[in-house]
UniProtKB/TrEMBL annotation:
This is 2-dehydro-3-deoxy-phosphogluconate aldolase. Homotrimer. GO terms for molecular function: 2-dehydro-3-deoxy-phosphogluconate aldolase activity. InterPro entries: Aldlse_KDPG_KHG (IPR000887), Aldolase_TIM (IPR013785), KDPG/KHG_AS_1 (IPR031337). Pfam families: Aldolase (PF01081). PROSITE patterns: ALDOLASE_KDPG_KHG_1 (PS00159). The lineage of its organism: Bacteria, Pseudomonadati, Pseudomonadota, Alphaproteobacteria, Acetobacterales. Its EC number is 4.1.2.14. Residues 1-27 are annotated as: Disordered.
């Protein structure tokens, strides 16, 4: 079980949205979308234009305490970049982003990647995702889109784009869907870490600020590590205000 209910059971009972949401290293082995995101806190959205940059970028982020990496298909190098990171940086939890077709979802599974994100949720893609064991996080922006995900048993969703107005949307969705969990992405900056992660239905946030395309192209690995370390420390301080734990 990886955070999805098979479609046959989705019509009979409400999905277990809370499954695995407890934090801690053990969740990396449970591989549910919600637990992966809860453990991560922050997920960099990576647009890699050159495969040669993939491994040093991943190592820079991991060195700063950021392990869950969404490598998007927004560039031609994205798929190969995800593959080489998965092969050469075992500390990283690598997944594919901007997945919009069943074929891309299947490619991510065949490559042995750990998860997949989509900016949206078409019926065809949701049906395909419900038949795979790969943790999948569909994108939504409305209650109707979220309901389509719930009907297929999905436990967590990406709110995309997060801005403008994403906080108000998440607060509103918390009423009729109190157990739903979200990863808002799109328009979030480092300055918004605490505000977004303080929302009760947000388990993680995604963003490109941790490693912008310009920084990746310039090979600014030290700067990326510093940003990752600073952001990870802010998540830790928010979740562990007494200073206990990582």
């Amino acid at each position: 079980m990886h955070g999805l209910s098979r479609r046959g059971s989705a019509s009979r009972m409400k999905p277990d949205f809370g499954m695995g949401i407890s934090g801690g290293e053990e969740n990396m082995t449970q591989e549910t979308p919600a637990s992966l995101m809860q453990t991560a806190g922050i997920i960099p959205v990576l647009m890699i234009g050159n495969v040669a940059d993939a491994v040093p970028l991943a190592r820079a982020l991991v060195a700063g305490g950021i392990r869950m990496l969404e490598v998007t298909l927004r560039t031609k190098a994205g798929l190969d970049a995800a593959r080489v990171i998965a092969q050469e940086v075992p500390e990283a939890v690598v997944g594919l982003g901007t997945v919009t077709t069943p074929a891309e979802l299947e490619t991510a599974r065949k490559l042995g990647l750990r998860f997949a994100f989509s900016p949206g949720a078409t019926p065809v893609l949701l049906d395909a995702a419900a038949e795979t064991d790969l943790p999948f996080v569909p994108g939504i922006r409305t209650a109707s889109e979220l309901m389509a995900c719930i009907e297929r048993g999905f436990s967590a969703a990406k709110l995309f784009p997060a801005e403008p107005g994403g906080m108000a949307t998440l607060k509103a969705l918390g009423g009729p869907f109190p157990e739903a969990r979200f990863c808002p992405t799109g328009g979030i900056s480092e300055d918004g870490i605490e505000a977004w992660l303080s929302l009760p239905n947000v388990v993680a946030i995604g963003g490109s600020w941790l490693a912008t395309p310009a920084e990746i192209e310039a090979g600014a690995w030290d700067a990326i590590t510093a940003k990752a370390s600073r952001s990870a420390a802010r998540v830790s301080a928010l979740r562990n205000p007494g200073g206990q734990g990582a």
